[in-house]
Design brief:
Blueprint: E1 3-10, E2 21-30, E3 35-38, E4 44-51, E5 53-58, E6 61-66, E7 69-73, E8 79-83, E9 90-97, H1 99-108, E10 115-118, H2 122-133, H3 140-157, H4 173-181, H5 189-195, H6 200-211, H7 215-233, H8 238-244, H9 250-261, H10 265-272
Antiparallel strand pairs: 1-2, 2-9, 3-8, 4-7, 4-9, 5-6, 5-8, 7-10
């Protein structure tokens, strides 16, 4: 494992408190050749991609990770994390255990599979790392509180766990799935961001990095994609499609559709029916 810089801290209270303990924590700036393996561990591992990209390998497949992704590994789960060759990641990580941590895992992630959520949790990692690096005494209660907040934030932002059925299980499709579930509503960008437990600027940065689009541009592209399917596969009128997809009217829908596809809705239907 090759690192440009790594800071590792340990929990000074680990021999005293067996209820909730952070056994180790770190902040890593790996180089492009970095690989971290985890085989049959007994502790819970949590990591956060603060910047850059990485590739995660778990039983069932490989998944890309991007800035803003937080991964929770329950005990006894194999994984491999590999740096992106062009954009190495900045990674925060925690190795924790204890009866309370095990209870959190069983309660919030009952399937006991590695999961990922896109959420703004960097501050929790910074707080824990700073506390442990100062070797403060009697910090167990504060650690429990911060860890609980972290688990709750991840749970509320949880999308799909890796299942081995496709790369969309970890990243990518969760945004589209959320939009599709609200396709016939007027979706506000603040609601969009709140669903993933982040601010609008954080969501914007992630979507720009992954797809080169703002939240509105991404939202519109998903709606236009659905409109294409409706135009090609049925006789639903352009007016009804515009109304169902919450465009202002047919004119507004047609203008945006042509801007995105180069064709009017009628032309697209004629070419694809």
């Amino acid at each position: 494992m090759s690192l440009l810089n790594e800071k590792i801290v340990y929990n000074a209270d680990k021999s005293v408190n067996r209820t909730c303990l952070v056994k180790a924590a770190g902040h890593v700036f790996p180089d492009p050749s970095w690989i971290a393996l985890r085989e049959d561990p007994k502790d819970v591992l949590i990591l956060f991609i603060a910047d850059g990209k990485a590739k995660l390998t778990v039983s069932g497949g490989e998944y890309p990770l991007y800035r803003g992704d937080c991964v929770v590994f329950p005990p006894r789960k194999y994984s491999k994390l590999q740096s992106d060759a062009k954009t190495p990641p900045e990674v925060y990580w925690l190795r924790c255990g204890g009866d309370l941590v095990e209870a959190f895992i069983k309660s919030y992630f009952p399937n006991m599979r590695a999961i990922v959520a896109t959420c703004d949790v960097e501050n929790f990692f910074v707080q824990i790392t700073d506390m442990l690096s100062r070797s403060e005494k009697n910090i167990a209660d504060t650690l429990c509180l911060i860890l609980h907040k972290l688990f709750v934030t991840v749970k509320n932002s949880l999308s799909t766990a890796p299942s081995g059925k496709g790369k969309s299980g970890l990243t990518g499709n969760r945004y589209e799935e959320y939009i599709m579930s609200h396709m016939y509503d007027k979706l506000d960008v603040h609601d969009f961001a709140d669903n993933f437990g982040m601010s609008v600027p954080s969501l914007t940065a992630i979507l720009k990095r992954k797809y080169g689009k703002t939240p509105y541009q991404y939202y519109l592209s998903v709606k236009i994609g659905l409109a294409k399917k409706m135009l090609a596969s049925g006789n639903t009128s352009v007016e009804d499609i515009a109304e169902r997809l919450c465009f202002t009217d047919r004119t507004h829908f047609s203008k945006l559709f042509k801007r995105e596809t180069g064709l009017s809705p009628a032309e697209y239907r004629k070419n694809n029916s």
